[in-house]
Amino acid sequence: MNIGVPRGLLYSKYHVFAETFLEEIGAKIVVSPATNKLILDEGVRYCVDDACLPMKVFHGHVSWLKDRCDAMLVPRFIGIKEKEYICPMFCGSIEMVSNNIPQLPCLIDTPICSTQNYKLSQWAKKTGSVLTKDENKIMAALDKALQRHGNSKTGFNDEGYPLKIGLIGHAYNIYDKFINMDLKKKLNGLGIGIITSEYINGADIADEAGKLFKKPFWTFAQEYYGAAVCIIKTKKADGIIYLSSFSCGIDSVVIELIKSETGDFPFMVLKLDEHTGEAGFDTRIEAFADMLKRRCGIGHNLS
Ligand code: SF4
Prior knowledge:
The protein is α/β, with parallel strands linked by helices and 303 residues long. It is built from 12 helices and 10 strands. Strand 1 (2-5), helix 1 (11-24) and strand 2 (28-31) form a beta-alpha-beta unit.
């Protein structure tokens, strides 16, 4: 059986887990290609106008896969930590794609809540039963998937650049080169290295988030806020760029929380949507780079 895996939303964080699990239970995997103009256009065509860009891109990946697989893995993400949640858009993503995109194959949409081992096992048994009735095989696949996931690492921590910035934001914005117009390459080309939240100590992130009067109940909001504050306090970087999705409710809260801690620490928000023009994007990045160089006394030519 060919199982489609859309390269959107949390793919960059969990693809090793998902692909290992599916392969171990005997699936042949079809992954949609890296986001491109065709995928974005399909997503914009099918998705509702006021959804965030990552949700539109996800629609595009689902659309690309729909005639190329027998079933598609579209898990309903609910939570990855106890008493915390993922953006509600994830819970509704199944209804969105199944109502917006015609003629989809069977969707494997078992809710996934990895806050406790037994919940993850329930997900594995239900998902795995699409391909095999052998529960031992399913549990062995789950173990292997968790092991490989634990050994995999995403994130950037560039060394050797005269300047460094913390790049904060959703993984699906940071690791999608098409959507962010290869921001990393642009920054590296301006002599700026990047550090992302994966390279900030998890305990320090939790500590900073825990100091808030009211901790956000979204896991990723805590991660972005905590990582940004750690960077500001430890001066691990010379500035922060927050890569935000237009119309994202979580970003609108996190950005304000971070701003309340920045003081005079350089901080810039770059918003992405399907209309973001590259020229304006470049101008803002170059202006931020010039400002950082001036502050740090690097280079005389600020052209
Ligand atoms: S967190 Fe924001 S960008 Fe991500 S799916 Fe939710 S609304 Fe969209």
